[in-house]
Amino acid sequence: MKKIGILFGQERSFPEAVIARINEKAVAGISAEAVKIDKILQNKPLDYAVIIDRISQDVPFYRASMKNAAITGTAVINNPFWWSADEKFFNNALAEQIGVPVPKTALIPSREHPDNTTADSFSNLHMPLDWDAIFDYTGFPAYMKPFDGGGWKDVYKLHDKEDFFNKHSGTEQLVMLLQEEIIFEEYFRCYCIGGKHVRIMQYEPRNPHHLRYAVDTAPSSEKLLKTIEEYTLKLCTYLGYDFNTVEFAVRDGVPIAIDFCNPAPDADLKSVGQENFDWVVETTANYAIERAQAQELGKDNLTWGKYIQSAASGQPLSGKTLPKGVKVSPSIKAVKPKSAAAAKKPAVTKAKKTTGKKIDPGQ
C-alpha cells in the first residue's frame, strides 16, 4: 500500500477534503492520511510515497524532515530543496529571461546589520548606493516589500524618495524589493498543479480577504486568458513547482506577473469559494495519486524545474515557447469576456503605516 500524506498547520478545509477525496476514489494500492511523525532519523524514510507539504515554510523542523523524506524516496510536493533556495527577486529575473513580463524591480539591502555582522561585513557594498539610478529605474509611486516574503505583510506603498527613506528606516533587518506600481485594468490569480493543470480565477486584491474572488465582470478576451495560462505554465515548469499560484495584473492588455512564489497557496473554502475549492481539491487528489503511482523506491522522485535542468545540462534558457512536453490544458475556468467599454480599475493603494526617522542615504 502506497500512502499519500498531507503535512499542514492551522488550515483544515483543504487538507481534510483532499484526504477524503483520495480515499473516496478507492484506487487500488493507494490511501491518504494526515502525516504522522514520531521521529526523524538521518537517512531513514517516512512511510509515505507522496507528501503534500503545506507548512514547512514556517516550521524549520518540518523543512529538514521533508528534505530527509525526499532523499529517501518520497515525492514531496513541492520540492523542499528548490523551495528553500527560491525567492521573489530571483524569480523576477528568471521570468524576464523566459519572456514573461514582470514589474521593474530593484533589490535593497537591509536597513540594519544582520545579527553577528558589523560594518566591516559590508566592505563590498558601495555607500551611498546609487539611489537616483534605482529610483529612476522603478519610478514612483512604487511598492516596497520583502524579497522573500508573502502576502501583504511588511508591504508599503511609496509616493516619492522621501517616503521611501522614511518607511525603509523601519524595516530593520529585512531585505526589501523596490518595485514599480502597475496600474491595472484586470487582475487574475491562477492555480497551477503538476505543471499542467491551470485554474484562472478573477481576483480583486482591494476587497476584504473573503471577497477577493467575488468579481462581477468577465475577462476582456479569450486571447488574454490563453496568454495568462501560457505564462502560468511557463513560470511553474521553469521553477519546478508542482503546486503554486501565479498572480497577474493586466496593464494595457498585457498580463504582468506580480507574484508567483506561492508554493503553499491559500486553498481555504471560505476564501476561494466552493467552485474553486472543488477544482483544487479534485485536481490535487488526482495529481497526488498520479505521483504515488509513479513513485519508485531508491530513486529521486522530486520535480526539478526547467531552470535547474538547463543549468545541469549546460544549455541556455529558452523562453520563446513552453518547455518541451508541456501542453496547454483545458482546465481554464469558464468565463465570458467582458465588453471593451468596461471601466478600468485604479491601482492597489494599500499601504502600511510606519513611524521612524529618515535614514541617512549614505549609511
List key phrases describing it:
about 375 residues; alpha/beta; Rossmann fold; Dna Ligase, domain 1; D-amino Acid Aminotransferase, Chain A, domain 1; 3 domains; four-stranded parallel sheet; four-stranded antiparallel sheet; 10 helices; 12 strands; globular; disordered C terminus
Please give a quick description of this structure.
With 363 residues, the protein is an alpha/beta fold. It has ten helices and twelve strands.
Structure description:
It is a single chain. The chain has 363 residues and is an alpha/beta fold. The chain has 3 domains: 2-81, Rossmann fold (3-Layer(aba) Sandwich); 88-96 and 103-180, Dna Ligase, domain 1 (2-Layer Sandwich); 186-313, 2-Layer Sandwich (D-amino Acid Aminotransferase, Chain A, domain 1). Helices cover 30% and strands 18% of the residues. It has helices at 13-25, 60-71, 80-85, 88-97, 131-138, 161-168, 222-239, 269-272, 274-294, 306-313, and strands at residues 2-7, 30-34, 50-53, 75-77, 105-108, 142-146, 156-158, 176-180, 186-193, 197-202, 243-251, 254-259. The strands form 3 sheets. The protein has a 4-stranded parallel sheet with strand order 2-1-3-4, with helices on both faces. It has a 4-stranded antiparallel sheet with strand order 5-8-6-7, covered by helices on one side. A hairpin with a 2-residue loop joins strand 11 and strand 12. Helix 1 crosses helix 9. It is globular, with a radius of gyration of 22 Å. It starts with a strand and ends in a 50-residue tail after the last helix.
